[in-house]
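Researcher: Let's do a round of design. I'm pasting the structure tokens now; please hold your answer until I've finished.
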């Protein structure tokens, strides 16, 4: 009898351990085995898979018809194939992912409110055309996307699939501009803007992250932190090959608004408009190159070896 109870108890404990191990390898229904980042650092942000609904059929109006959008509102904007489109952050805050097509170019517009990072990617990877949703999972507080075709998880700031059949594949990021709506409209008066007609009822006039941008707190634990700037200081991040550099807005504000910087074997033109909150990087020919604007804590977490621009050191008053 005692032996049977002992065997029964042992089997129960083994079953519990196996169940716990299985749960540790899956989260929100995603298989985390063989993840390119530590699986223990992938966490559930709260919403279930697709609990934050991606926008698959964005609706647009001409700039002159965008009466719903205050001039000072921030947008993530793209100019591609002679088409200009603006995606209001007041909408992206509630959706984080927009699957869209500009001309012949299928794109995914992504925004992580916790990191303040907006990035636009080509949805074509190899011979696959992907569409994306929100996994409800985070890595270093940054949104993890998933593609609906293979259910692989993709890190926005790593620009890479970290789990699943697409593991190791990379997304090609496209130049995008984070700026005020009135600034973008002046630069691109023919721009169209995404409307709140998303097919989902959300209070777009409210900011679900009010106060977060100025707080020194981050939502979830971080493996790496740096006190070089306020955690929410906005930085312009440039990646060239394996090297990264951060241009903090507080440093760019000490310049005349345009500077040239030699970095990673290239010469880059940085343009900054403090009123619009716009910072972009251009190559020697003047073409805008892909970058990301976001919070310092997020940039540092993904690029701990980042170079840091200092206006004084570069001789820009």
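Researcher: That's everything. Go ahead.
Model: Designed sequence:
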């Amino acid at each position: 009898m005692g032996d049977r109870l002992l065997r029964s108890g042992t089997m129960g404990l083994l079953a519990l351990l196996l169940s716990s191990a299985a749960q540790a390898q899956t989260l929100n229904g995603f298989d985390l085995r063989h993840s390119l980042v530590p699986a223990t650092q992938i966490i559930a942000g709260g919403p279930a898979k697709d609990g934050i609904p991606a926008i698959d059929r964005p609706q647009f109006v001409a700039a002159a018809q965008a009466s719903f959008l205050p001039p000072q509102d921030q947008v993530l904007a793209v100019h591609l194939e002679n088409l200009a489109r603006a995606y209001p952050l007041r909408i992206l805050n509630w959706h984080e992912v927009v699957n869209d097509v500009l001309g012949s170019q299928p794109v995914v517009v992504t925004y992580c409110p916790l990191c303040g990072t907006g990035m636009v990617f080509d949805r074509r990877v190899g011979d696959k055309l992907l569409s994306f949703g929100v996994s409800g999972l985070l890595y270093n507080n940054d949104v993890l996307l998933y593609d609906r075709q293979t259910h692989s998880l993709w890190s926005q700031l790593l620009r890479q699939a970290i789990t699943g059949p697409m593991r190791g594949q990379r997304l090609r990021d496209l130049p995008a501009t984070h700026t005020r709506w009135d600034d973008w409209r002046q630069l691109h008066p023919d721009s169209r803007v995404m409307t709140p007609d998303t097919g989902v009822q959300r209070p777009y006039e409210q900011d679900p992250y009010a106060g977060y941008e100025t707080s020194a707190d981050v939502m979830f634990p971080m493996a790496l932190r740096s006190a070089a700037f306020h955690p929410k200081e906005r930085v312009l991040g440039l990646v060239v090959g394996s090297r990264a550099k951060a241009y903090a807005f507080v440093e760019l504000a000490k310049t005349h608004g345009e500077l040239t910087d030699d970095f990673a074997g290239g010469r880059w033109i940085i343009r900054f408009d403090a009123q619009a909150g716009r910072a972009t990087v251009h190559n020697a020919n003047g073409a805008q190159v892909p970058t990301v604007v976001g919070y310092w804590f997020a940039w540092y977490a993904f690029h701990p070896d980042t170079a840091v621009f200092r206006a004084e050191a570069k001789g820009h008053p």
